[in-house]
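Appendix C. Worked example: XRE family transcriptional regulator
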Amino acid sequence: MPIIVNLDVMMAKRKMSLNELSEKVDLTLSNLSILKTGKAKAVRFSTLEAICEALDCQPADILEYRK
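Step 2, the predicted output written as structure tokens:
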């Protein structure tokens, strides 16, 4: 898939665990894990907004397009 999810990279840069991010964005661990591993088929803008707010980053820091 040409869309790469760099959520784990941003979490590492912010020294935030999956559990901590899950609590901050009010998502289950399993849903966040699916997103983090790149297995998600879609992501809601509200979810992306919450993640960006919690990690103090931009959507482009999390999602990347590669041919």
